[in-house]
Design a protein that fits this description.
alpha+beta, 529 residues, four-stranded antiparallel sheet, disordered N terminus, seven-stranded antiparallel sheet, 13 helices, 24% helix
């Protein structure tokens, strides 16, 4: 069930008033809200979708293995006048409803299952351009600027599972460790005292590695060089965000939170919040930036890890390493709701301030009233080593594999698209596809500096002859299924105009170690009369 309220600000249609509607999809079931009014709608509606466990087995072991996502898609619902002959207006039906996709976000079912409920304000991911619409110019020009502008689109939700499902018991066994016994006792007492004073905060001094041994968290932080093929801070942030995300419960078939080292993370080709945050933090340290791993709680994932950086002038940024998003610590829209502690390679600092929200905190780690360090004069840092390798191995992704994947994805998506339109003839506009292929190849290099005006100028020749709606979507590559789902969720295949033509272009950008960024540009065209 989801009770929703949304503010779809910062996006305007060029020729009509937006009529927003939200569709929620889960396991190919769909429910939708009523149609809102204008760019600032308010819904207070409950949507109920069924859940089916694998083989109707609702045991914790079975439900925990569910990998389905809950998709939230924002549409603009248009009422189009399709009357061909004005003389028949009083006797013929002359309107057709058409919906245009504006943006999306998803929440793994496993997140709702593990926490029982998820609530908060969620940012809708909008593409860098939506043909037929424009972003408020006061909101900034590039995608990165839109991420932090106050006109971005958010959806307020409460999600729960009814009736509640039994969750697996957390593993509380004492794991083996090679750490010093005195250090471990001190860590247990330190955590216990912090949780007594701040029971809702996420504090951590140790973790469990992939072999099942307890390791002190500072051992995971070490300067490590990013691939030579990525350029500067911007490139390394993008690279880390494109490494696929997978939760430990799905990767290791258990309820225990396991931490892999950066080389293991890249070799496995996937990881969760901690792996992404540690790798990005280590990259920042390699660039001689002041960086820390943040342990806290965020929406929608709950317990999480971010990266904290300082510019040396008392200005701090928080990075969601899994998505590549940067937030100012004063940004009230930051998904990080609570900070428990931060750590680097030499110490851990626990947040003992009154507030846990970043916007209401001081990040001066030297302030003993705000931050409680683990290592002090009473218990000094013993010079712990690292579990990280000195040099990460980066293997170029074969271009032949990339070319083959690009062709395969394009063919698969077109076949799927045509199958969804089995009642209609699907016409592909080859001329437009050629133009889109040229455009889509540039998106990876300009993902955070994209210019809407330059994009429209590139399509000027087509736009003179056609009315065109469309957008690029971007996903990190794991397999074809999430890409098919993303295209399906846009609803473009539902267009019933008998004269409509479509264009689809795919570009796969390869990073080392088969980390792939997939861009799909989908467009619908009708000739101007």
């Amino acid at each position: 069930a989801a009770a929703a309220a949304a503010a779809a600000a910062g996006l305007d249609a060029r020729a009509h008033v937006i009529r927003p509607v939200v569709e929620v999809r889960f396991q190919r079931n769909m429910r939708r809200t009523t149609v809102g009014d204008g760019p600032y709608p308010q819904w207070n509606e409950e949507l109920v979708l069924p859940f089916t466990a694998p083989d109707n087995d609702y045991s914790p072991a079975s439900v925990q293995a569910v990998t389905d996502d809950i998709y939230f898609n924002l549409f603009d619902e248009l009422i189009l006048d399709v009357l061909g002959d004005e003389r028949t207006r009083e006797t013929n039906i002359h309107r057709r409803i058409e919906k245009r996709w504006l943006g999306t976000f998803s929440i793994p079912f496993s997140t709702v299952y593990q926490h029982g409920r998820v609530e908060g304000k969620f940012k809708i991911n909008t593409p860098p351009v939506l043909l037929g619409y424009h972003y408020d110019q006061n909101a900034g020009g590039g995608m990165a600027q839109k991420q932090q502008n106050p006109y971005a689109t958010y959806l307020t939700l409460f999600i729960t599972v009814q009736p509640p499902l039994k969750t697996p018991l957390a593993i509380k066994d004492q794991f083996e460790t090679d750490e010093d016994r005195k250090l471990m006792h001190y860590a247990a007492d330190w955590i216990k005292s912090l949780r007594f004073a701040h029971p809702t905060r996420n504090f951590k001094a140790t973790c469990v590695d992939i072999t099942g041994k307890t390791v002190f968290v500072t051992r995971y932080v070490k300067p490590q060089a990013p691939p030579d093929s990525v350029e500067g801070e911007r490139g390394m942030v993008r690279f880390v965000s494109m490494v696929p995300f997978v939760e430990d419960a799905q990767a290791f078939s258990g309820a225990c939170d396991l931490w892999t080292t950066s080389d293991q993370f890249l070799e496995l080709g996937a990881g969760d919040e901690e792996e992404h945050a540690v790798l990005l933090c280590n990259y920042f340290l390699y660039l001689r930036r002041d960086a820390y791993v943040v342990i806290g709680a965020a929406i929608p994932e709950g317990a999480t890890a971010y990266v904290l950086t300082s510019d040396g002038l008392n200005r701090f940024s928080l990075w969601n390493a899994s998505t590549g998003e940067r937030f100012d610590t004063q940004d009230s829209n930051c998904p990080l709701l609570s900070v428990g502690c931060v750590f680097n390679d030499t110490n851990i600092w626990a947040n003992v301030q009154k507030f846990g929200e970043p916007a209401r905190m001081s990040f001066n780690l030297q302030d003993k009233k705000a931050w409680r360090p683990f290592f002090t004069n009473i218990f000094p840092y013993p010079g712990l080593g690292t579990v990280q390798v000195d040099q990460l191995a980066y293997v170029p992704t074969p271009q032949g594999y990339v070319d083959e994947l690009t062709a395969s994805l394009s063919l698969t998506l077109k076949k799927k698209f045509e199958s969804w339109r089995e009642r209609f003839v699907t016409r592909w506009n080859r001329f437009c596809e050629a133009s889109l292929k040229l455009l889509v190849q540039r998106f990876e290099s300009s993902w955070d500096t994209f210019s809407e005006d330059e994009h429209n100028a590139e399509l000027e020749g087509i736009l003179r002859s056609y009315n065109m709606t469309g957008f690029p979507i971007n996903l990190k590559y794991t397999d074809v299924h999430p890409i098919v789902e993303a295209l399906f969720n846009t609803g473009v295949y539902l267009i019933e105009d008998p004269t409509v033509e479509f264009a689809l272009a795919v570009h796969v950008h390869a990073y080392p170690n088969q980390v792939l960024s997939v861009w799909v540009y989908m467009a619908a065209l009708t000739r101007k009369s």
